[in-house]
Structure formats: C-alpha cells, structure tokens
Amino acid sequence: MGDQIQFIVEKLNQEPFRKNYNLISFDSLESLQLLQLLSDVLGEIDPKHAVDIREELPEQTAKRMLHLLGILKYKPPGTVSDLSAFRQGLLTGSKPVIHPVLHWLLQRTNELKKRAYLARFLVKLEVPAEFLQDDTVADFNKQYEELMEAFKNLHKEHEQLKVSGLSTAEIRRDISAMEEEKDQLAKRVERLKRRVETVQNHQRMLEIARQLRLEKEREESLAQQKQEQKSQLFHAEQRLQRAQVQLKEMQHVVADSKPESLMKKLEEEVNFNSYLVTEKIPREMESKKTSVYFLQKVVAEPAMTQADLTALESEINEVNAQVNQLIEKRMMKYEPADSKFSMYRQQASIISRKKEAKAEELQAAKEEMSSLERQMEQKSSQAHELEGSEVLTEDEFKQYVSKLRSKNTLYKKKRLEIAAVTAEYGVLQRTEELLRQRHEAVQQQLQAVEEKKGISGYSYTQEELERVSAVKSEMDEVKGQTLDNMSEMVKKLNSMVAEKKASLAPVIKELRQLRQNCQELTQECEEKKIQYDSCAAGLETNRSALEQEVKGLLEDCAQEESNYRYINCMKRTLEIQLQRAKEEMKACVSPDPQERRRAVREQYTRIILEQENLGKKLREKQKVVRESHGPNMKQMKMWQDFEQLMECKRECFLKQQNQAAIGQVIQEGGKDRLVL
C-alpha cells in the first residue's frame, strides 16, 4: 500500500498535474479533494471529464466516473457485494476505493487516452427495436455502423503506418545521402559532357544513342506483348482442343447410342444416385456422427492411466464374452422356421454387403476416372508447354492401334526370320569350327612333311605373299576409285558455284539498290523523328501548363462552392434563430398569459424552479437518511439477532418434540412386552 501511494504521489508531481504533494499531504486529503483529484486525472484522459465536482451533484459525479471507468475497462476487485461497496465508496470518496483507481489510471495513462479517444467513436448507441422499424432511422443506423467500421479500418491503417514509418532523423539522413548522390551524378554527367564535346558529331551520336535506347525499350515492350499473346493463344488453343474433344465425345455418344440405351443408362445412374442418397450416405453420416460423439466423449473425459486402460480392456473382454454366450443361446433356441428366416436374413445381408461393396467400387472408379481426366488435362497442357505433339483423339488413336497391330505382325515375321537365321548361324558356326579343326590338322601334317623335306615355312610364306598381293590390288582399286570420285565432285562443285553466282547476280543488284533506299529512308525517318520529338515536347509542356491551370481553376471553383454552401447554411441557421428570437420577443411582450407561458424563457424558468425545489427536497431527504443511517443499521442488526434467536428456539422446540415422541414410543413398546 505504501509503494502504491508513493507511485501515485510521484506521478501527480510530474507533468501535466504538478500537484507538489508529499506522502503526508496526500494522505491527509479529504474525500471531496480525493474525488476532485480523481476527476482531474480522468479529465486528463478524457477532456470532457475536466469539471469541478462542486458544480454537480454527488450522484452525477459517481455516475460519470463509473461510466468512464467502464469504458476504460477498469475491474474493481471482489464479488458483486464488493461492487456495491465500490460504488458507495466512490460516492463518498473513500480512500481504499480511490487509491487503487488512481494507481491503475496513472500506470497506463497513454493507453487509456487512446482508449477514451476511440470510445468517442466506437461506443455504439443502442437504438430501440421499435424505432428501427422506421426506414429513415434504419438507414441512419446502417450509415452509422458503416462509418464506425470505416473509422476502425482507418485507425488500424494509421497505427500500422505509425509503427512501420521511419523517423524524421532517418528521413533526413536519406535525403542528405540522396542529395550527395545527386551531386556526384551531376559531376559525373559534367565530366562525361566535357569528354563528349571533344568528339566530332557528338550531338548526332547522342541522338543516335537516345534513339537506340527508345528502340530497345520498344523492343522489350513488343517482346512482352508477343509473350502475352503467345500465352493467350496457347490458352485459347487449349480451350478449343477441350471443346473439340468434348464435341467429338458427344457426337460419338449420340451416333452410337439409341434412345433405349440412353434411358437405360440414365435409369441406372438415377438408381445408383438414389441408393447413395437414401441408404449409403445417411448410414455413413450416422456412423461418422457416432464416432464423433464417442471421440468428443473421450476428449471430455479426464486423462486415463495405464491401470484404467487395463480395467477397461478387461471389461470389454467380459462384455464380448457375454455377447458371444447370448448369441450361442439364441442360436440354440432357434426353431426351423426361424432357421429359414435366418438363412434368408444372411442372404439378404450378404447381398446388401455386396451391393455396398459394388457401390463403393463404382464410386472409387468414378473418382479414379475423374482424377485420370484431370491428370490427362495436366499432361496435355505440359505437352503443349514443352512444344510437344498434340494429344491423339479417339479416331487417331484407333488408327495408331491398327498401325501398331500391322507392325506387330511384321515384327513377329521378322522375329521368326531372325530365329531361322540364328539357327542357321549356329549350324554354320559349328561347320566353321569343324573345318578349322580339319585345317589345323592339315597344317600340322603339311609342316611335318616340310620338315621332313627340309623346306619348313614354305606354305606360310606363300600364303603371306598371296595375301599381300591381294591387299595391294584392292588398295590400288580403292585409290583409283577415290581419285575418280574426287574429280567428279570438284566438277560438280565448280558447276554449282557457277550456277549460284549466275542466279545471285540480279539479287545482289536489287540488294544494293534496296540498301541505298534503306539508308535514305533511315535518314528521313530520323529527321521526322527529331521533328516529332520536338513537337511532342512542346505539346507536352503546353498540356502540362494547361492541366495545372485547369487544376487550379477547379480547386478555386470547389473552394468557392464550399464557401457558398457554408454561407447559405449559416444564413439559414441565422434566419431560423432570428425567427425564434422574434417569436420569443413577441411571446414575452404579449399581454396574454398563455402566450407568455409558451415562451422558452418562462418554460426554462419554471423548469429551473422545479429542479431547485427537487434538489432541496433531495438534499433534505439525503440529510434525513444520513442522520437515520446509524440507528437504522443498529435496528436492522437487532432484528437479525432477534431472528437468529427465534430460529434457535424453533430448533430447540423441534428437538424436544422429537425426543418426547421417541420416549413415548419406547414406553408403549415396554408396556406391550409386559402384557405378553
């Protein structure tokens, strides 16, 4: 509590209060001074509450403070009874009530200022429902709510800008850095100008560079437009292709189908959808709801330990065993008729399960077909993006399949031929191996004979000479053929060069003439472009000047129009006030007492007198209540004590009656025993 009072004193001695309190002087403040101090703090938060409490009644002061504290979301400590004590303490200026309020307000003054400012615009006025039935009142209320929402959005944007905005120092630093950079760029430009002025035809070169830059920018914009048009064309082709595919599918369906088949197909689809709607989906929804209910029930229960889980598992096992026993007993008690019915029931359940399974398979097949269609569209779009071939239609695919079949038959024939050739190759390979073995045996015999005769290596040398002579003859033939081919090729090339020269001669002449024309047209285009740029610059300056002039005239016109409307409004209000003043003067001067009573002055005088009389009565009543408050409280305490005393006597009397009844019953029981 001492720290709280010290904090309050420190805050009150600072700006904007400057009260120059110390702990003793602050603690010695009277209730009225404390209330005035609280009103001053509230007035600092909301200027509407900067009033002198001596000029208003205590009830009005308490009501005003409670209203503002409610807007600022101050929560008094305690229960509902403590809230009534809080109101009473605020009315009387009690220190235990005022000090916590001051401490709470001075802790968060800036935040509360912002909240009070927003409350002026965001505290909604509650309009009774019977008034909202009027169209005009409803429209005004709707406009009021829309303006409130707009104010919320603007305030949020303002706060975001305040948070995200740069400080003035940072902005100044940025401006100074940009100015330095601007000076450096200006110096560089001057240096480059001095360098360029030494070059011949620098103006011409600068103009050409400017034109080159403009043409590059134009080329970039044209390239961007071309890219956009390409993408638009691609999307249009995709849409056209999808539409064509759908058209072909519809034509195929219409061509191949008959009314009976279409009706049958529609009936099957309707039956399937009705089965889904009436049986399958409601059953699935019911199962989902039950599972959700059980899950919510499990979530709502407290956390379970391992022992609880084991107990639940044992209970589940016991219940399952009991269910199995009951099923066995029921099956044993079945009669033959019941057994037949059970057989039919089993068949019906099997059929229903099969039906559900087929419905689920059909649903899954439909979903898979839709997903495959989506994948096909994606793949076709990817193929178009990669500039691949188009997706085949149904007829093209059939033709492709027929071609594949013909190629497949041809492939099978070739495969058989390859198998036959492979078998023949194996036979020939085996024959070659046998002949090689025989050749080796003959060679060995020949070498043995040559060794006997003393001419070993004769056969090998003769074979080598024959092979070399054969290779030499082949090389001579290849060389001769190559020389003939080269001579023929040189002749062909010479003839082709001559033909190309003859055919390109007139084209070269035309190209020279066209180059000269192109140079002349380029010069003329540059001159026209210079004229156009100068004319466009002059027109642009004239247009900007005219726009500025028109803008200024429009602003003047708007200002004059607003002044005119403001003066008209002021004139109307002054006329109305003048008319009311004339009527009031006429009513005051009139000798008729009824007209005098109608005068506003008389009405307000009468109301003031009534309020003064009412204030006097209320002050007297308040005085009487304050004087009789102590005796009344003492009397109420005496009545409460008397009520407790009587309640105690009633309980004692009831206990005494119960004891007497019990004793009488015991005596009667003893008499009965004696008689027996």
UniProtKB/TrEMBL annotation:
Location relative to the cell: Cytoplasm, Cytoskeleton, Cilium basal body
Coiled-coil residue windows: 137-253, 309-389, 504-563
GO annotation (BP), single: spermatogenesis
IFT81 calponin homology domain boundaries: 3-126
Pfam family for this entry, one: IFT81_CH
Main localization, broad class: cytoplasm
Name the record gives this protein: Intraflagellar transport protein 81 homolog
Keywords, alphabetical: Acetylation, Cell projection, Cilium, Cilium biogenesis/degradation, Coiled coil, Cytoplasm, Cytoskeleton, Differentiation, Phosphoprotein, Spermatogenesis
